[in-house]
Target: Glycerophosphoryl diester phosphodiesterase membrane domain-containing protein
Amino acid sequence: MGAQPFDFGKATFHFFNVFGRKPAAVIWIALWQAMLNAGLMYLAFVTIGDFYIWILGEAFSGTGPDEAEMFNRMGSIMSVGPLISIGGMLIALMAQGAWLRLLVRDEMAPLIPFRLAGDELHLFATNVGLLGIAIGLYFLFALVLVFTGVAVGLAAAGGGSSNAGLAGGLTFAIAVLVMLGLALFIGVRVSAAPAATVLERRIAFPAWSVTKGKFWPVLGAYILVAVMLMVLGGAFMMVVNFAFLGALMPVFQELFLAAQTGIEPNPEALLGALEEAVTSTGAQISLVSAGLVMLFFRSVYDAIWHSVGASVAIQSQATQPVSE
Model:
């Protein structure tokens, strides 16, 4: 039996197929990811954000910040900052594992979908490999641009004509396009590595064979999904912006009043209006609700993006010959 052709539609709409079959699982994973990220953001706000709010208040008050207090606050940031970064990476890794388990194996861990187990360890190794490729491409890109730029400059200086400069600029542009094309090609070819890792329950990096012969349809699926996410994201942000604008209305009223009277806005009055806006019960409910909804849909966006590689890995496994 011959290999089945790659199904572009399945790759593009795989997430929506999974959501149609298991909507509760999708919502549950997205809720967990949103709540964990919200907790991390709150921790960052009460530590790092509080420092910048204090600096802003000191600047508006006209007095310089006390050095002892500033160093004390900076010390707190330096002690908490690395923990927040590690926490963010762990949440991202666990979310990737939870989404890919659902998308490629149709599984979800009971009650708590996030965990640190074999899938996450395999994904960590795969992600490190992908990061290594990205870093290698970055340095290769930089070296090519530097050497091409130097060569073009020397050629233009030696020739001393407009044609030499034009040829040099064209050479530089071609070098940039070649490097961008190389990065795009490698990115698409290894894009299914995380999904293949979870599907096969092993480190499948770089999973080069999974996308073999499918470069253009896989690239097209990613482009179509990116367009869908842009449209959905734009519509969603319009709704969220109304919530933020409503919460900050006292600040805008102060600015409008200053513009109508022709008087420069008072920094202390603006700071007071901002403090009133973010501390009122209604504003806090509005901001928190909008933030949680934004984080929820951001989690769904992650799943939609992962779903392309998941479908590619599933289709690749289905077309592999079964050994007798």
